[in-house]
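--- STAGE predict ---
source: upstream dedup step, 1 unique chain passed
mode: sequence only
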Amino acid sequence: MIQKIVFIAIFFLAGCVENLVNISVLNDGSYLVKYTSIGNKTDLLDIDFKHPESDNIHQWVTTLASSANNSQEIWEKETILSSPTRKKLVFSNSSSLQYDIDISKKSSILWTNYYFHSNIKNLEIDKKYPEINQYLNIDQNELEWMIPVKKYIFSKSIEKYQKQHSLNDIVIERIDNQVNSYISYVKEKKLEKEFNKNTSQIFLDALMPLKNRLPEFFFDEMNIIIDELEKEFEKNTALMSDNFAFSIVLPGKIQDTNASSINNDTSILYWEFDFNDIATNSFNMYAHSLVINNLGIQLLFVVFLLLFIRMLWKRKQNKK
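--- STAGE serialize ---
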């Protein structure tokens, strides 16, 4: 309850979406996961950070509810894994945050080790959109982003199209020149708002003079590629308003971790990160705990004691 109140307070102060992922590891090595997101309903339903959905392996239960706070409506989305799993969870949809959750258990007669690893994939903003790095800390609707982003989507789309189809160098050069001329015209006339349109429509507008010289289904096939890249960019910019906190409870005593903080009373480990932490780098989390098997130690002690007594008895027999 306290965590929820804190999340709501942060939401009002920062106007963002707070996402909390709770992981509970059981003694048998299986684990449960619970997702909680708090914020504007529209933001909770977008795809930049999707809650897991049921498939043939895992069943997830999702609820969405609202509450009023200071005359403002706050929505909370909660998704819970219906039963414990031992499988590694991998979320690789390029239109959403990409990450994995991996829990493993290694047992011996004396102790049991539990390991947690999770990797939040690098968004690679510096590689994909090198010209917008200077704008990472400004409002996400700034039009200064649009031109370098559209240029990236255009060039990457043509590159992907070229891998699937055959275009000669002359045609590619004409496309590049036409696109660059269109961008220069937009910049010169200060028509950046034109770049707020759907990227595939901008691409069509830019290449309209060449339409009759391009393959018959060129624009249809390019639209699919462009839309995929645009969804990826929309995900990346939408993540700028999201904050994340992962927490985990492991059996036993913590031996090693890179957690941001540890609650000494509950032994809960916490990691926190936001867009800036994953814009140009991956964010890795790990933890290792140990459970001592007291019964195993006692049994081992009894075995050694019996062996020692047997050895003494044999020596005594030999002296006789």
